[in-house]
Design goal:
The longest helix is centred in the N-terminal third of the chain and has 20 residues, at 18-37. This protein is of the alpha+beta class. Helix content is 33%, strand content 20%. The protein has helices spanning 18-37, 62-74, 88-102, 166-175; strands spanning 112-118, 121-127, 131-137, 145-152, 155-161.
């Protein structure tokens, strides 16, 4: 008997939860990103053990976005040394916009979401095949906006919308 290694346990297989799929996708993306940024490492390959590709369309829900907001604003590595943190009331407001926007989206599905606090504001980016939508929610109402960009063939369309409401956000999320 090999003393150095614990016995192998059989684990029952299960269908992955939405959160497990999201974590796996984020991990693979981060590995691919690091490999792409590493000079001379073009031969690095990732082999998931026994994993089967997820066939559905990736998406986020209001709940998963709220979790991403909480995680991002608590993560000290997201901030520069003297960078302002978003205030609690600003965090609550942006969360309410996300929750209300969910009602205007088919199936309550948001495109894949990235959240980043920046100098007292919260920046939320949704990326789709045809473009992206970014909600910039700052302390001053006049500094809040929705930035959108769409690419179709050789056409690149972008702009800023100052009307930051759940309805206007949902409009641009559906169009992108």
């Amino acid at each position: 008997m090999d003393v150095c290694c614990p016995p192998i346990r059989r684990v029952e297989r299960h269908d992955p939860t939405e959160r497990e799929i999201e974590w796996t996708r984020e991990f693979i993306h981060s590995v691919e990103f690091r490999v792409a940024e590493t000079p001379g490492n073009s031969s690095v390959e990732v082999y998931p053990l026994g994993a089967q590709p997820y066939e559905g369309e990736p998406f986020d829900t209001a709940k998963s976005i709220l979790e991403k907001i909480d995680a991002a604003v608590r993560d000290e590595e997201m901030y520069d040394i003297s960078e302002l943190r978003p205030r609690e009331d600003l965090i609550r407001e942006v969360k309410q916009i996300i929750q209300d926007t969910e009602h205007y989206l088919p199936g309550g599905r948001f495109p894949v979401t990235a959240v980043r606090p920046f100098d007292g504001s919260i920046r939320i980016t949704w990326t789709t095949e045809s473009g992206s939508v970014r909600l910039i929610y700052a302390e001053k109402a006049s500094d809040r906006y929705i930035f959108y960009e769409e690419t179709e063939g050789d056409t690149h369309n972008y702009g800023i919308v100052r009307d930051v409401t759940p309805l206007s956000l949902a409009k641009w999320l559906r169009q992108s």
